[in-house]
Structures are given as C-alpha cells and as structure tokens.
C-alpha cells in the first residue's frame, strides 16, 4: 500500500529557492522514492489558488500565476503520469468540506493562527490610530474572512485525501497541526465505535532547510522582497547574489559571511565549501562570484526545461484538467462518506 502524500503552493508570486529547498525538492524526491521495503508514495500536488485569492484579486494575474506555478511544478520534475497535479479550485469538495469544518472550529481557536496574528499586528498601529477604531472587532477591518479561515481550507485540502505525509517548510507546521486537531474534533464528534473518518497527517519538515534564509538573512519570503527566484536568469542570479547583505555586523566567525554561506550550502556540500571559504576569508566579492556560478549551474537545467514546457501551454492545461479529474474522484468519495456521517445525505 502506498502512503498518501499531499502538499501545495500558493500562486501568489514567483517561486523562489526557499519554496524549492524547503518543500518542492522534497516533492520530487518523495515522488521518486523507492527503497524496496515500502511501496513509496501516491502524491497529490496542488496549486492552492483559493488560498492565493486572499492576495491576488485580479483575474488576469491569477490566471498567469496559476499557469506559471504549473510550469514550475513540471520543470522541477513532477511527473503527471505518476503524481496528481491539480488546481484546488477545480475540486469543489475542498470548499464544501471547509464549511463542514467551519461548524466545528471556534473563533478563538482560529485566532491563534500565526498568519492571522501577524495580520492583526500589522494593523494595529497605523490603521487603528488613523481611523479611531475602538472595538476589538472593528480593528480587524482590513483582514478578510479568508485570511482568518485559511487553516480550515488547508485542513480540508489535507484531510480529503486520507493524507499520511505533508512535506512543508517550518512556516506551515502550525497549519498541519490545525488539520490534525480538526480531524480529531470531527472524529470525536461524529464517529462511533472507534471508527475514524479522518486520518491524522504528519508534517514532513527537513531541519536543515526548514527556514531557508533570504539575501538579507531573514526567512526568504515573497513578502520580504529578499528572494532568489527559482527560475532566475543568469542576470537575475547576479543581481540577487550581489545584493546579499554582508555588512560588518553580519560577518560571521573566521571571516565567513553567514548570509552568503547559508545560501551557498544549499547548492554545494559543506566539505566542498570549506576550502573555498578558507581560501577567501573576508573576500566577499570572490565568494559571491563562486556562489553565482554554483546557483546558475544548478538552476540552468530546470530553467531550460521550463522554457521548453512553456512552448505548449495547452498541454499544461490538459495536465491540470486530468489531475483535477483524478483528485476529484478521490475527494468526492471522501466527501460523500462525510455527508452520510453528518446526516445530510441518506
Ligand atoms: P506557500 O505557497 O507560502 O509556500 C510553499 C512551500 O514553500 C515553503 N517555504 C519555505 N520553506 C523553507 N524556507 C523558506 N524561506 C520558505 N518559504 C516558503 C512553505 O513552507 C511551503 O511548504 N499554505 C501553503 C499552501 C497550501 C498547502 C496546502 C500546503 C495550501 N494547502 C495543503 C500543504 C498542504 C502556503 O501558503 O505555502
């Protein structure tokens, strides 16, 4: 029996090497995983467009970013003949199950989500003072319900497929915990005789790449503008690497600049890096030049594959359609099971 693996990426901007090393590389490794003792994984990879809708509220842009992300998945090596690649919005069971879960979770429970708390913190100073907002509820004026409800949709994504494993970066750990809690709550509320409807998923987070740093040393993130794009051209790689922050207060011990080194070790093993960094102590320009070469050599084949795939976007759309049919079958069967248990279907 294959284990079930599911993960997703939001189409909210250009994929970066933090997405890749933190999560997407594991997608490919686990899709290809075989060790003779297990049957490997049946993988579901999702374009989380409904999650992205919290941010991207322009039809043209959403269409473009969705196609871009489908190309990214295929270019890194997701094989649609083995893995199910689909768009979240194409499988309506995700939003339907979200509603069912909504009736089980409470407002204070969702208010503990990191992403929601971050959105609230962002608001309070400027907006609140400016608008003379008084009540606590009014202060939430700029936060849409989708942001609040985000973990519930993500729980539905995961639980619909009886997922065993969810490969993600550290920032998604809490969301997988929400999925586990919601599964338990549903099982406890509706299931009798110790038969559980939902399986408890496990996050898969690889320690060394749980938080990939950006060019300023903070977590690499679309919203911080500190990324190295996954399909960057040679020129874009040069620009990004030359902007890596190396001022004296971030120079590490022994003349090794951590902001360069921590990105470099994603591309080359540390045994190979030691002589290079020993030979170029404090020579940031030379180290950056070496890093540019290593990133470019690594990204080039994927970049070329992506350019090839882009020639025939109809084929990519066909892959998504096919993926939605396959995912939809599984998801609809699970939803029917749920609807029977909650009593809305005979
Ligand atoms: P998203 O689109 O923000 O990010 C996609 C994946 O990239 C990981 N990641 C990182 N990992 C390490 N270091 C970084 N600097 C870094 N930046 C991003 C994220 O942890 C993530 O694994 N909510 C999800 C999408 C989603 C999903 C799902 C994931 C929707 N439904 C169901 C798993 C299962 C998100 O916003 O990922």
Automatic annotation (TrEMBL):
GO terms for cellular component: cytosol. Keywords: Aminoacyl-tRNA synthetase, ATP-binding, Ligase, Nucleotide-binding, Protein biosynthesis. InterPro entries: aa-tRNA-synth_Ic (IPR002305), Rossmann-like_a/b/a_fold (IPR014729), Trp-tRNA-ligase (IPR002306), Trp-tRNA_synthetase (IPR050203). Its EC number is 6.1.1.2. Gene3D superfamilies: HUPs (3.40.50.620), Tyrosyl-Transfer RNA Synthetase (1.10.240.10). It catalyses: tRNA(Trp) + L-tryptophan + ATP = L-tryptophyl-tRNA(Trp) + AMP + diphosphate + H(+). It comes from the Bacteria. One of its GO terms (molecular function) is tryptophan-tRNA ligase activity. One of its GO terms (biological process) is tryptophanyl-tRNA aminoacylation. Belongs to the class-I aminoacyl-tRNA synthetase family. This is Tryptophan--tRNA ligase.
């Amino acid at each position: 029996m294959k284990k079930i693996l599911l993960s997703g990426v939001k189409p909210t901007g250009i994929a970066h090497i933090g997405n890749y090393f933190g999560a997407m590389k594991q997608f490919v490794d686990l899709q290809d995983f075989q060790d003779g003792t297990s049957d490997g994984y049946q993988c579901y990879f999702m374009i989380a467009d409904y999650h992205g809708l919290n941010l991207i509220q322009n039809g043209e842009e959403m269409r473009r970013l969705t196609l871009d992300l489908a190309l990214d998945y295929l270019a890194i090596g997701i094989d649609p003949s083995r893995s199910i690649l689909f768009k979240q919005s194409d499988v309506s069971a995700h939003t339907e199950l979200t509603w069912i879960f909504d009736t089980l979770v409470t407002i204070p429970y969702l208010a503990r989500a990191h992403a929601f708390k971050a959105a609230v913190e962002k608001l309070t100073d400027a907006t609140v003072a400016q608008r003379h907002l008084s009540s606590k509820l009014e202060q939430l004026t700029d936060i849409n319900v989708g942001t609040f409800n985000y973990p519930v949709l993500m729980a539905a994504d995961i639980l619909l497929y009886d997922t065993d494993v969810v490969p993600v970066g550290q920032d998604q750990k809490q969301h997988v915990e929400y999925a586990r809690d919601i599964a338990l709550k549903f099982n406890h509320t509706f299931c009798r005789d110790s038969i559980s409807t939902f399986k408890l998923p496990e996050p898969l987070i690889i320690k060394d790449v749980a938080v990939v740093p950006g060019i300023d040393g903070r977590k690499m993130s679309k919203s911080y503008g500190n990324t190295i794009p996954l399909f960057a051209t040679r020129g874009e790689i040069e620009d990004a690497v030359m902007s890596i922050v190396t001022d004296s207060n971030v120079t590490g011990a022994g003349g090794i600049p951590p902001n360069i080194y921590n990105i470099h070790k994603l591309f080359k093993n540390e045994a190979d890096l030691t002589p290079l960094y020993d030979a170029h102590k404090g020579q940031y320009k030379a180290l950056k030049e070496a890093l540019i070469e290593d990133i470019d050599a690594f990204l080039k084949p994927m970049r070329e594959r992506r350019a090839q795939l882009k020639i025939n976007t109809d084929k990519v759309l066909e892959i998504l359609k096919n993926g939605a049919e396959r995912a939809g079958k599984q998801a609809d069967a699970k939803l029917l099971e749920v609807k029977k248990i909650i009593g809305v279907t005979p």
